[in-house]
Amino acid sequence: MEYIPRAAWLAEAAAAAGQQGPGNLFRVVLLVMLVGCVLTAWFLLRGYKRKDD
Question: Which DSSP string corresponds to the chain?
């Protein structure tokens, strides 16, 4: 395994990201939206529990 300086690695990663397109960003946005929807549903629906005291 050869040593690659940090700046060179970052530049290479940025160049590769430009070629890949928005795929990874789209996955992250979808995941955050899904988790947000689940948390919002849990928050709203937890108030509908019946308390039979």
Answer: -----HHHHHHHHHHHHHHH-SHHHHHHHHHHHHHHHHHHHHHHHGGG-----
